[in-house]
Amino acid sequence: MDSFLKAEGLWFSYINEIEEPPVKTEVLKGIDLDIKKGEFVAVLGHNGSGKSTLAKCFNAINLPEKGKAYVDGIDTSDESRLLDIRQKVGMVFQNPDNQIVATIVEEDCAFALENMGVEPAEIRRRVDEALKTVGMYDYREHAVHKLSGGQKQRVAIAGIIAMRPECILLDEPTAMLDPSGRREVMKTIKMLNRELGVTIVLITHYMEEAAQADRVVVIDSGEIMLDGEPKSIFTQVKTLRNLGLDVPQVTELCYELRQAGVDIPQDIITEEECAQALYKLLA
Amino acid sequence: MIKDITIGQYFPGKSPIHRMDPRVKIILTAVFIVMLFLSKSIWGLLVGAAFTLVTFFISRIPFKLMIKSLKPILPIIIFTGLLNLFFIKTGEEYFHWKIFRITDEGVNTAVFMAVRIICLIIGSSLLTYTTSPIDLTDAIERLLSPLKKIKVPVHELAMMMTIALRFIPTLIEETDKIMSAQKARGADMETGSLMKRAKALIPILVPLFVSSFRRAEELALAMECRCYHGGEGRTRMKQLHMSAVDGIAFVFTAFFLAGVIALNIIL
Hints:
The complex is a heterodimer of chains A (283) and B (267). Chain A is α/β, with parallel strands linked by helices. Chain A has helices at 51-57, 82-88, 105-116, 120-133, 149-161, 179-196, 207-210, 230-234, 237-242, 249-259, 271-282; strands at residues 3-16, 23-36, 40-44, 66-71, 74-75, 89-92, 167-171, 199-203, 215-220, 223-228. With 267 residues, chain B is mainly alpha-helical. Helix content of chain B is 69%, strand content 3%. The A-B interface holds A 59, 61, 83, 86-87, 90-91, 93, 95, 97-104, 106-107, 110-120, 123-124, 127, 143-146, 159-160, 163 and B 3, 7, 133-134, 162-163, 165-166, 169-170, 173, 214-215, 218-219, 221-229, 233-239.
């Protein structure tokens, strides 16, 4: 498969100019990452590990200090291709309230397309299509502030997929939602990846969400610590704990059971697998 | 409950006035105001009043709602009425007591001014009652777009208005939350003198401002991510179209305007 997002020795730091002398905080320290077209990658890391900063490097919000970031072969520091990059890589943020621009659902969904200068009839078609994709078509004429958190976040996602991006970066999209909103959003994300082949980079705090990805990347203090399939990552319970991260509850359960001497497979990360293993054990 | 307040005073409906192109509505409201000020005689004003009443009935806005919008203007109407009544001293005298003198011209002018102000308020409220704030902003942007040539930031102003409208409910909700949080910490906002209550607002306004700045920053970022780069090369999903209703409205208004002008010439 082709590489879609690529980071080569990426360094990034924030400079606080209010302090005297200016304080420089290095956030990313030489990241090498290669994300393939159509992949579903979860990025894990505790607060301040640099995961959001990394995501912003991939749509030219942050420009690397050293090293390069490429989107579909385009160097993100190439200013003349800025709008191309932003159109190829959409970004969804944590707080749905702060990323919705218009008061009406369908008008917000049309915002990106209006910016891109798409023909009105084509905007209409793509907006309807995007809203149907996320299951918000029936709400198209509703006021945004009357929707639930999960619905708002799905509207935000629709606003992004209306651009027809090849990749969507999601920066903790479920952090402010209740459990049912979280399920709605995760379902939508997985559907986009499986059915439409959109490359997904999901930054998250929830291990259960990361377990649903094809690949998990763990970042700590600006460096990639672990990178691999969920099964191979989450079985390293000790390493993850040292990085200040949890493992999915079921993995922890199996880990504790193994520690207690119960014979149960180590690579369990979903509830389904866990139930099967326990069933077999008890049968 | 604080969430349910309406933004602006839009009253949704399907009347012909609601269906009109917002641009036409703004222009015709301006024409209507000119019409009211052109009329010199009571007859001319009656034509203007008739126009107001007819549009009011077509719009099917509840009578109560209109009375509500007139209430705040009542003191002004009474004030101008009294001024005209007592300070116009020409014409035939009706009544004289010490320095007060009421003449027929005074009465006429007082009534004339009162009717004019009432018509003015009803007519312009009709515009905001029948047009959603979004449509209004849109129409203003398009009507003012020729000003772009002389470097007036029309698009930016319209975008600011849209965002302000979008964030009113969000900020109201937030104010509600902060108020509850401060009350839970023992803040007293309902009792005490005016000064005391004004001071009690500070712990609400400060967090509200801080969070608004944070929101603004995030929104700016999200807008950039969605390819926002100013008004240049921007298209709109919803195009404004003039329809038969607008044509009829134009003819209708022109007819009344002509009536007012004709009466001015004849009388």
